[in-house]
């Protein structure tokens, strides 16, 4: 009897270990930016954008997060700032189209959870560089509410695409192929 109980405990322990070896990467576009000053190449988030940043925090509440990455633009940093403040995790800059960044992500521990904030023309190529199979090449300028979740285990990537916050997207036609 004791041996059976130990086997069951070991089995569930192994299941938890295997599950813990999945790396999760969430990729989002920055939230809505202020558009009133067309000469400003680094505008902050608008009121709606700040609300969306808070929606992202709420969406991921209760999820383990180990790393936050953002481009150096104010709008991308502000999108992940509520999570950074709540969890006391530093926001690390990354360069778009930097193969070393992809390599660094791939070399993170297998059970890492990562949030990356980018731009309409960069987040889908980034997801694809990490192994996601997505039918579109980039988002439109109106797409702010997509969150791409990549579950990476044993070099296999399972991609799910969802919306968060207020609906503000031009299409539901972004499909992932797993």
TrEMBL record:
Superkingdom in the source lineage: Bacteria
Protein name, per record: Histidine phosphatase family protein
Lineage of the organism: Bacteria, Pseudomonadati, Bacteroidota, Sphingobacteriia, Sphingobacteriales
Alphabetized InterPro entries for the sequence: His_Pase_superF_clade-1, His_PPase_superfam
UniProt xrefs under Pfam families: His_Phos_1 (PF00300)
